[in-house]
Design goal:
Radius of gyration: 19 Å
Number of helices: 1
Largest sheet: 5 strands, antiparallel
Strand content: over 45%
Helix content: under 10%
Shape: globular
Structural class: mainly beta
CATH architecture: 6 Propeller
CATH class: Mainly Beta
Number of strands: 28
Order of helices and strands: HEEEEEEEEEEEEEEEEEEEEEEEEEEEE
CATH topology: Neuraminidase
């Protein structure tokens, strides 16, 4: 693996590796195990059941398309440092995800070691902290409306997953069978149709929960890996990505090979969409259509030659090995020809080629916007940057 110094990587990636090693070492066949805010980060990783491992250095190893996309072109950058100005977040916490309903109603979530979860709100003028009344680390946020916002993560101390709901006035913890869960992603089509994904550190299996407006229950699936992110177009078309592991034994040594996977939901169950992305640890997924989906991740290979960006055309996932950022944290787009990916910088896809936007920020884990000229990116040390168009 590559060692990245001086950069804070997505929390999920660190946890995924730790959990995968633990899971794989205790089994003799194929096993699965498990982040940003970031990658990840969160999207992110853990001691015991926690998605974040205080003993794991933020500089730990981690190293992420489209069909015939051209390589990242630094010289063709559509932006410079001034195009992504920093916003005052009022915190030094690791921010793992961002989402909103409008420019003046944006939420950022994350965690601060020793101080647990962090939730910020932007009202169009300033960011302010919100109380949650809970402990734990948060890795993802999504909502159906200003009065129906969900944030997910985990509470390592109590060895349980965390799901919070915002009703427009206050955050409150939701109840359910979350023991042993690390939840890294959340997405839905409505307040009565929400998926949360991650990993079960007790059962050492994937975690996919569904909320129908009254309770959270396990969703039918054939998934068995540490899920990092979920995104979809409708209640009949959604995607999730994650990292699995396969063990082999030689003499007294146990070898572990990591591989990325993609899963698709078509209205009744989650099933494999891509058996392997090779040694890419996925951290994000987004698409403009069911025939135009991007998955990004980080290179987990020994020789640092693994593609970290894949594109799905409706039938096949294709690697773009010309896209070579140092590491990736998240992805979001306004359209097929207006996609943003964040990590060691902000990268933009114009429908033909990816280019580095030279934002002046690294350690980025989450990205979201209301449109092509109103995009927020968040990451380590409380970083929030905003793009208002070139």
């Amino acid at each position: 693996m590559r060692r990245i110094s001086g950069l804070v990587l997505l929390a999920f990636l660190a946890t995924a590796l730790a959990l995968l090693v633990s899971c794989s070492a205790s089994s003799s066949g194929t096993s699965a195990a498990a982040d940003d805010d970031s990658a990840v980060d969160d999207d992110d990783d853990n001691d015991d059941a926690s998605p974040v491992d205080d003993d794991v250095s933020p500089d730990d190893d981690v190293s992420p398309t489209d069909d015939d996309a051209s390589p990242v072109d630094d010289d063709a950058s559509p932006a410079d440092d001034d195009t992504w100005p920093a916003m005052n977040s009022g915190t030094t916490a690791t921010l793992t995800a961002v989402w909103g309903t409008a420019h003046d109603d944006v939420f950022a979530v994350g965690y601060e070691v020793g101080k647990n979860d962090v939730v910020l709100h932007y009202d169009g003028t300033a960011w302010s902290a919100m109380a949650t009344g809970t402990s734990g680390f948060l890795y993802a946020v999504w909502g159906a409306a200003p009065s129906a916002v969900f944030a997910v993560g985990s509470d390592a101390e109590n060895e349980t997953g965390v799901i919070l709901q915002y009703d427009g006035s206050a955050w409150a913890p939701m109840t359910g069978s979350f023991t042993g869960l690390t939840l890294n992603g959340v997405w839905g089509t409505a307040a009565t149709d929400v998926f949360a994904v991650g990993y079960n550190t007790v059962a050492q299996t994937s975690a996919i929960l569904h909320y129908d407006g009254s309770s959270w229950t396990p969703a039918p699936s054939s998934v068995n890996c540490a899920l990092a992110a979920v995104w979809g177009l409708s209640d009949q078309d959604a995607f999730a990505v994650g990292t699995g592991a396969e063990t082999s034994h030689a003499d007294d040594d146990t070898m572990v090979d990591y591989y990325g996977q993609a899963f698709q939901y078509e209205g009744s169950t989650w099933s494999v969409s891509e058996a392997t992305f090779g040694e890419m640890g996925p951290v994000g997924v987004w698409g403009a259509a069911s025939t135009d989906v991007f998955a990004i991740g980080n290179d987990l290979s020994v020789d640092a030659g693994q593609p970290v960006l894949f594109h799905f055309d409706g039938s096949t996932w294709t690697a773009d090995d010309s896209f070579t950022p140092l590491y990736m944290g998240g992805i979001w787009g306004a359209a097929h020809d207006d996609v943003f990916a964040v990590g060691d910088d902000v990268y933009h896809f114009d429908g033909t080629a990816w280019s580095a936007m030279k934002s002046g920020s690294n350690g980025l884990v989450g990205v979201w916007g209301t449109g092509p000229d109103d995009v927020f990116a968040v990451g380590a040390n409380g970083v929030i940057i905003h793009y208002a168009g070139s």
